[in-house]
């Protein structure tokens, strides 16, 4: 890699140029450094290595796909891109943080017929600079009856209670004293899935402090006290009894919207112009498509699969024509360079206008993340 090319590209473009351009050679160390630089500009300390295989992974929530697709479409708007209109809060990162709590049933001493589920959301995926603006718990309850005849039954009313756990419980101690009720509401257990959303922004902010996150407990309790109904949530696997009714499946995720203030400014208009591949030595934007498969990132970047990143390359000769978008300083520098080519270099061909893209990816905890990144596409070049 020629050293004079280095400062004129975003780290990702540099990395791609390392990989694709035959006339330039990057050492493996240079590649590593560039990859690290790019990842850190995405707010990542390393290349995410999602654990699950492709089949086992959480699929991308449809709400997130919709936001990704609409952010692709509305790039031309001059709007504030640090506003997440879907949720009406400021932010430029949207994560679906997956629940890591375990399922317990009927263990609680106070409630033999209850289904209890621990919920735990690891908030350390947020960087310290990020301001949390929204944390919304999304609960989905599905219930698949064993027998077709159960489908004909009335939906079963349940009481859903959500507790925050305020400290660790030692074995043998009463867990009830270590929790505080947050919400309690009625839900209908029915074959179609039921969704519930609960705002947990303040609590989630508190969870970011070290040693403060003991998670939540979700409790489902049959409304009626008929003896038959009480079997509804009889402990499943661990006891010899089969449950009278299959346990509902509980899916929980925490939608976390946060704002990285350093990556926030009003969105520039993206030019839709395709760059021509003209062989000329004069400074201009050159087309460069970065395919994430070629960089080996297809396993953590969900979308897009690649994008037109482009790069600036070429000479800034004397006299500097207007189309080269030179500064007065660059015009004088070309003049001096023409008089003394060895003493003073030519001005450099650099991006003068860049535009953002949106990316959907898996982080190390297998959470799906949607982020907008500035300065990812070179639109125009100039001599500086
Ligand atoms: C939360 O995630 C961080 C980093 O991803 C990890 O180091 C930590 O062990 C996790 N904490 C828990 C309780 O799983
Ligand atoms: C200079 O800017 C104009 C528009 O402002 C653009 O059309 C042109 O391509 C730019 N020059 C280069 C070398 O990119």
UniProtKB/TrEMBL annotation:
SUPFAM superfamilies reported for this sequence: Cystine-knot cytokines
Main location as per UniProt: secreted
Signal sequence annotation: 1-26
Origin superkingdom: Eukaryota
Residues of the TGF-beta family profile domain: 267-384
Single GO term (MF): cytokine activity
GO BP annotation list: animal organ development; tube morphogenesis
Tagged with keyword Transcription regulation: no
Cellular compartments per GO CC: extracellular space
Keywords: Disulfide bond, Glycoprotein, Growth factor, Secreted, Signal
Annotated compartments: Secreted
Similarity annotation: Belongs to the TGF-beta family.
Protein name in the entry: Protein DVR-1
Natural source organism: Channa argus (Northern snakehead)
Organism placement in taxonomy: Eukaryota, Metazoa, Chordata, Craniata, Vertebrata
């Amino acid at each position: 890699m020629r050293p004079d090319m280095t400062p004129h590209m975003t780290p990702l473009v540099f990395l791609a140029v390392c990989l694709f351009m035959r006339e330039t050679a990057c050492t493996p160390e240079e590649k590593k450094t560039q990859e690290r630089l790019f990842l850190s500009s995405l707010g990542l300390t390393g290349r995410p290595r999602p654990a699950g295989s492709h089949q086992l992974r959480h699929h991308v929530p449809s709400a997130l796909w919709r936001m990704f697709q609409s952010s692709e479409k509305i790039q031309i708007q001059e709007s504030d891109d640090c506003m997440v209109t879907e949720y009406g809060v400021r932010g430029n990162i949207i994560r679906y943080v997956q629940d890591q709590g375990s399922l317990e049933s009927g263990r609680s001493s106070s409630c033999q017929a209850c289904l209890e589920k621990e919920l735990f959301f690891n908030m350390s995926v947020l960087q310290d600079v990020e301001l949390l603006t929204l944390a919304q718990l999304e609960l989905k309850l599905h219930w698949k009856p064993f027998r077709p005849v159960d489908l004909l039954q009335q939906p079963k009313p349940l009481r859903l209670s959500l507790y925050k756990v305020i400290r660790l419980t030692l074995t043998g101690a009463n867990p009830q004293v270590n929790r505080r009720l947050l919400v309690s509401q009625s839900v209908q257990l029915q074959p179609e899935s039921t969704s519930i959303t609960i705002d947990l922004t303040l609590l989630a902010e508190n969870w970011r402090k070290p040693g403060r996150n003991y998670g939540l407990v979700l409790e489902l309790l049959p409304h009626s006290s008929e003896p038959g109904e009480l079997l509804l949530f009889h402990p499943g696997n661990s006891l010899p009894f089969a449950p009278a009714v299959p346990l509902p499946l509980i899916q929980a995720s925490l939608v976390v919207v946060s704002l990285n203030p350093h990556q926030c400014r009003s969105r520039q208009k993206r030019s839709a112009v395709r760059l021509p591949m003209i062989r000329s030595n004069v400074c201009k934007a050159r087309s460069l498509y970065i395919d994430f498969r070629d960089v080996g990132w297809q396993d953590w970047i969900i979308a897009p699969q690649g994008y037109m990143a482009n790069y600036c390359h070429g000479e800034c000769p004397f006299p500097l024509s207007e189309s080269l978008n030179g500064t007065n300083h660059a015009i004088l520098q070309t003049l001096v360079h023409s008089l003394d080519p060895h003493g003073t270099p030519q001005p450099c061909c650099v991006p003068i206008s860049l535009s953002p893209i949106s990316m959907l990816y898996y982080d190390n905890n297998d959470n799906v993340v949607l982020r907008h990144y500035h300065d990812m596409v070179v639109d125009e070049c100039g001599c500086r």
